[in-house]
Amino acid sequence: MGFPRVRMRRLRRTQAIREMVREVRLHPSNLMYPIFIDEKAKAPVPIESMPGYSRLPIQSVIEEARQVVEQGVKAVLLFGVPSAKDEAGSAAYASDGVVQKAVKRLKNEFGEELAIATDVCLCEYTTHGHCGVLKNGVVVNDSTLEILRKIAVSHAQAGADMVAPSGMMDGQVRAIREALDDAGFNHVGIMAYSAKYASCFYGPFRDAVECAPKFGDRRGYQMDYGNAREALREMELDINEGADVLMVKPALAYLDIINQAKSRFNVPIAAYNVSGEYAMVKAAAKVGWINEKAAVLEFLTAIKRAGADLIITYFAKDAKLWLTK
Ligand code: PBG
Fold it and tell me: What structural domains does the chain harbor?
C-alpha cells in the first residue's frame, strides 16, 4: 500500500503524537562532563576558544561537580594541567599530582553518586607536548606503555572508577588492564579512546590544557580520517585487550564510525563531542547565525541516534537547559 492510503504526516500531526513515536531521547545520565584542573590556577581561567568553559583550580572542583550533578549528569572526565612538565611526563603519575588530588577530593565528597573517569595520557605533562616519550623525535610506543601503567594505577589509587587512555599507543589497554589487576584494582574500568582520529577539532582543547605538540603532529599515533575499517580493527583489538567501553572521537564527523561500532560490538559505545565541535556551535550562536539550544539538541540526539550510549560533552553542564522545555 502506498499513497494516498499511506500518509506519513499522520504521525507528525501533533506534538503528542510526535513524542509518542520518537525513537531516540537524550537523558542527562548518558552524558559525561569533562573538567580541566589546573594546578597553578588560583581562580577559574576562562578559555577563549571555548566560551563558557574554564580551567579550574583544584579548590573549585567540588563546586563544579556539584553543579554538574544537579543537572542530572552522573559522570565526569578529568584532565590535569600540572605546575611543572618534563621530558617524560613524570608529573602524570605523582601520587600528589593534580588529577590524583582532584579525584581524592571528588571521591570523598560524592562517593558513589558520581562516576569519575580520568584521561590517561602524557601530552599535558611533557615539555614537548607529545602523547608519549621520545627517542630521536619519535614517540616510542613500548616505553610509553610503562608510564601509562603507572598513571592508571595512580589514578585508581586516588579513587577513579574508570581510566581512559587517550594516547593511541598500541597495546595500551592491555598494559593498563594488567597493571590495574596486579595492583588490586580489578574493579576499575577502562574506557578506551579506541578510534581517536588525528583531528583539527581538538584545537581549542590544546589551547586549554597547553598540550599542543611543540614540533610535528600526532598523525604517527592518531588515526587518519580517511579510514573506517581501521577504526573497527582498533576497537576489536581494544575489546580483546580488556576495554570495558569503546570510544569514538571526535563525534560529529564520525557518525558512521559510531554506527558501525554499535552494530558490531556488544560493549557500551562512547562518543566524544570535542572542543572544536563545541566552539563551532558557540561561535555561530554568538553572532546569531544559529540557535544554540536547537543546535545542541540536534547534534547530541544525532550522536545518540548513530549509536552512542554515552556522550562526553562540554554541553553537559547545561543539560537541564537543553533537556527541559
Ligand atoms: C589528549 C587529549 C586530547 C583530547 C582529549 N585528550 C587532545 C589531543 O589528542 O590532541 C581532545 C579533547 C577535545 O578536543 O575536546 N591526548
Answer: 26-324 (3.20.20.70)
